[in-house]
Design goal:
By secondary structure, the chain is α+β, with helices and mostly antiparallel strands. The protein is built from twelve helices and 21 strands. The chain has two domains: 229 residues, P-loop containing nucleotide triphosphate hydrolases (Rossmann fold); 149 residues, OB fold (Dihydrolipoamide Acetyltransferase, E2P) (Beta Barrel), CATH 2.40.50.140. Helix content is 25%, strand content 30%. The strands form four sheets. The protein has a six-stranded mixed sheet, with helices on both faces. Strands 11, 12, 13, 14, 18 and 21 form a six-stranded antiparallel sheet that branches. The longest helix has 18 residues. The two termini are 38 Å apart. Bound molecules: adenosine-5'-triphosphate (ATP) and magnesium ion.
Length: 392
């Protein structure tokens, strides 16, 4: 058993690309830590540095108590599972799983016991004599996991191991990989660009953007208390609605926020939860509301305290409706907001479509005017200058 600790780990490629920038991360004993972020944000680079396949430009990497920056990959006691797992086509499942043991000259009886045990954990006992060509995609992926398991490493590294599988199988394998990981209790660093995968699998999730760690916490905390606009927009599907608004009345105890021509109440509870908001009196803030926290207002209401717009598109999913609507509020794209300086200073704000997630029996169609009530303690507030969450 071991832990993995990255301290200010930085990777600058010879061409000058800074792929990972001062990354601090600790994977606890037995923990499944997911590293998530958009394409090119440095996930694979970070993982390869832990594996020893890529030099560390700056900072320290510890496995257990040992600083391993200069230790060769084979001495690091890790096993890696990649997206493209090349199984040996001419070998049986058992031979594929046991290949590393054979290289290590593990005695036959011992190797065979380990293979059997791994096969049992992975549900492969019935197919040990088959060749990879006679397996389903999910079974092949499990064989790849089996090869890592029999090595009994102190750390697992996985780089998008499920991305070659079809959607249904991927969902099933997520649960299986988590279960196997828990059974073995081995510290695991798991890379994916899929935030749903990250949320469903991770004990904790580290969100990376442009080589920089944005937030590392439990899935629920990332969802409830995103540290900045980027995390707010990245975690959750459909994404959080983000608008620019102006805060008024914070000093009078009846705070409101203007989103375009709509004025929403910021309740006492919300003010109390974000005391720092009073600094933004009369100023712009970024307001975030998740689609599930918008509820269609009854038609009799007088229009005050609501978010009004026009229905553009209704997606009926059976269990719920996704109502896409336009408003005159100014949209913020989380993708842009986090690192575009122009966005930070508020020069760019585009019209956009907002989304509400409502019950399946709500009667709406494209072109209809629509109004939403907003639970004010479900509002998120961000500083437009930094993109950071406004809290204390
Ligand atoms: N060998 C290399 N030399 C120079 N730049 C590289 C090299 N490998 C990767 N990069 C760059 O480093 C950055 C991070 O790449 P990396 O592969 O770590 O991203 P990633 O998060 O794994 O992306 P993806 O989700 O697409 O797999 C990218 O800008 C990439 O172009
Ligand atoms: Mg990658």
């Amino acid at each position: 058993m071991a832990t993995v600790k990255l301290e200010q780990v930085t990777k600058i490629y010879p061409n000058g690309t800074k792929a990972v920038d001062g990354l601090n991360l600790e994977v606890g004993e037995g923990e499944l830590m997911v590293l998530v972020g958009p394409s090119g944000c440095g996930k694979t680079t970070a993982l390869r540095m832990v594996a020893g396949l890529e030099d560390i430009s700056d900072g320290s990497l510890y496995i257990g108590q040992k600083r391993v920056n200069d230790m060769s990959p084979k001495d690091r006691d890790i096993a890696m599972v990649f997206q493209s797992y090349a199984l040996y086509p001419h070998m049986t499942v058992a031979e594929n799983i046991g290949f590393a043991l054979k290289l290590r000259k593990t005695p036959k009886a011992e190797a065979s016991a380990k293979i059997d045990q791994a096969a049992k954990i992975l549900g492969l006992s019935e197919v040990l004599d088959r060749k990879p060509g006679q397996l389903s995609g999910g079974q092949r992926q499990r064989v790849a996991m089996g090869r890592a398991i029999v090595r009994e490493p102190s750390v697992f590294l996985m780089d998008e191991p499920l991305s070659n599988l079809d959607a249904k199988l991927r969902v099933q394998m997520r649960a299986e990989v988590s279960k196997v990981q828990r059974t073995l209790g081995v510290a695991t660093l798991y890379v994916t660009h899929d935030q749903v995968e990250a949320m469903t699998m991770g004990d904790r999730v580290a969100v990376l953007r442009g080589g920089v760690l944005q937030q590392c916490d439990t899935p629920q905390t990332l969802y409830d208390r995103p540290a900045n606009v980027f995390v707010a927009g990245f975690i959750g599907s459909p994404a959080m609605n983000l608008w620019r608004g102006v805060l008024e009345g914070a000093s009078t105890g009846a705070a409101t926020v203007d989103l375009g021509s709509c004025r929403l109440d910021v309740g006492d509870a919300a003010m109390a939860a974000h005391p720092e908001l009073s600094r933004f009196e009369g100023a712009e803030v970024i307001v975030g509301i998740r689609p599930e926290h918008l509820s269609v207002a009854p038609p009799s209401s007088d229009g005050g305290g609501e978010l009004r717009g026009r229905v553009e598109l209704v997606e009926a999913l059976g269990s719920e409706l996704m109502v896409h609507f336009s408003t005159d509020a100014r949209h913020v794209k989380a993708e842009d907001a986090a690192d575009d300086p122009a966005m930070r200073t508020g020069e760019v704000a585009t019209a956009g479509i907002s989304v509400a997630r409502v019950g399946p029996r709500v009667d709406v169609k494209p072109g209809d005017p629509i109004a939403f009530e907003v639970e004010s303690d479900m509002m998120h507030f961000f500083d437009p200058a930094t993109g950071g969450a406004i809290r204390q």
